Amino acid sequence: MITLYVFGPAFGLPDASPFVIKAEMLLKLSGLPYRKQPGSMRRAPKGKLPYLDDDGRRVPDSTLIRLYLAEQYGISLDAGLSETDKALAWSVECLCSDHLYWCVVHERWLDDATFARGPAQFFQRVPRLLRAPIMAMVRRKVRASLQAQGLGRFSPAERQRLLQLDVATLATLLGEQPYMLGAAPSWLDATVFAFLASAWLGTLGDTPSQQALRQHPNLQAYVERLRRQYFPDWTVPA
C-alpha cells in the first residue's frame, strides 16, 4: 500500500503544510488506497515532507508524486484538458507554489502574533530554557530564505498588494465553475485547494491571506465545497 509521510494536524488544518494537503488530495483524486504516517525530514529523500513510499519506492515532492502517479499508474488527473489548459494549469501551479506560498510563510513565521498562534506550537517539546533561542534561530533562517526569495524585501503594503493579485487571479480563473478548469476536477484543484484552504481555514487569526480571500466569495465557496467532498472528516471550528 502507498504510504504518505506527513507532518500532521495543526492550526485547525489536517496538516501544517499545504504541500502535504496537496499530495493527499492527489491521492484522493486518484482513487488509490493509501495511509498516512508521521514523517521525519531527516529521513525524507530530499529532507522535506511530504514524500510517498510505494512498496519501497520513495517519491519526494508533491509535484513529483503527481508525475509518479501518472507514470506508474496511468492516473494523470488531466483527462479532457487541452494542451493550453495544461500549460495554464502549470502556470497556476507555479503561482501557488512559488509565490502565494511565500506570502503565507511570511505571515505565519515573521508576524509575531500569527507566529505565537501557529508555528510556535512546533517548539513545545523543546526544553523551556532552549525554546526561545531555538525559535529565534529558526525564524532568522526563515527571514533569510524570504530575503533570498525576494518577498522579504517588500513592505507590508507591497506584499499585501501582490498577495491580492495572486488571489484575484485564482478567483478570475475559477469564475462560476465548480472546479478550476471546468466541470471536472483535475490535478490543479489539488494544488489550488490546498493553498487556499491552508490560508482560509487555518486558526491563525485575521491574516493578510484571509483578508485577501474575504474579497472573493467564489473562492470561499470553492474551498468549502471541496473540503466537504474530499475531506469530510476535516471539521472547521465554529
UniProtKB/TrEMBL annotation:
Annotated GST N-terminal domain residues: 7-77
InterPro entries per UniProt: FAX/IsoI-like (IPR026928), Glutathione-S-Trfase_C_sf (IPR036282), Glutathione_S-Trfase (IPR040079), Glutathione_S-Trfase_N (IPR004045), Metaxin_GST (IPR033468), Mito_Protein_Transport_Metaxin (IPR050931), Thioredoxin-like_fold (IPR012336), Thioredoxin-like_sf (IPR036249)
GO MF annotation terms: transferase activity
A Pfam family per the record: GST_N_4
Keyword Transferase tagged: yes
Domain of life: Bacteria
Name under which the protein is recorded: Glutathione S-transferase
Native source species: Aquitalea magnusonii
